[in-house]
Amino acid sequence: MMKESTILSQGHAKQLQMRSKHRIGTWSIRSMLQLGKVQLLGEEMMRLGVDICGLSEVRWDGQGHFTTLNGHTIVYSGRPTQGMSGVAVWIHRKIAGALVGYEPVSDRVLVVRLKEVKCDITKAKCDMTQGQTTKHYSDSSVWTNDSSHG
Questions:
Q1: Would you say residue 125 lies in a domain?
Q2: Which of 34, 78, 119, 131 is deepest in the core (most CB within 10 A)?
Q3: What residues contact residue 54 under an 8 Å CB cut-off, 6+ apart?
Q4: Is 12 within the bounds of a domain?
Q5: Could you tell me the residue range of the domain that residue 139 belongs to?
C-alpha cells in the first residue's frame, strides 16, 4: 500500500520561473542499485543541461525523497521489496526549492508538485509495461497547470 501525499513546504517554496526555459526528460535507467549510480546520474544530467528527469526502472524499495551530495533532489516510489520496477524524478538543485510535495501512487506512478509563479505544476511519471514481458513502452510525462492552487 502506498503512502499518502507528502507536503514538503507550504507557502515558502521557491517559485519556478516558467519564463525561463527548463529542459525536461525521461530515462529508463534500468537500475539505480549499483554504488555510485546517483552520482553518475547527476553528472549526466548536468552535462546534458537537464533540469527535471523522470526515471523508470530505478528498482529501489519504498517511497520517499532525498537530497544528493551535490544538492539535487530525487523523489522515488518503488515496491515494498528492492529489485523490481520503481520510478523516480530527479530535480536539479537550482529548482529543487520549488518542490512543494509528491504522491507515490504505485511502483509505476509518481506525482510531483512544483510551485510556479502563477499556478502550481503537477508532473506525473508513469512507467508502462506489457504484462510480464520486459518490453517497455515510452515513458509518459504529463504537465498540467492547476489554477485552483495558485
A1: yes
A2: 78
A3: 25, 26, 27, 87, 88, 89, 123, 125, 139, 141
A4: yes
A5: 6-149
Tally of domains within the chain? 1
Partners of 110 in beta bridges: 104, 125
**φ, ψ dihedrals at 122, nearest 5°:** -115, 130
Instruction: Kindly report, residue by residue over 75-99, the tens digit of the pLDDT.
Output: 999 999 888 899 999 999 999 988 8
C-alpha to C-alpha distance for 13 and 21, rounded to whole angstroms: 19
d(CA 78, CA 92) in angstroms, rounded, equals: 21
pLDDT in tens, 105-150: 999 999 888 887 555 555 566 665 544 433 333 333 344 444 444 3
In a domain, 102, yes or no: yes
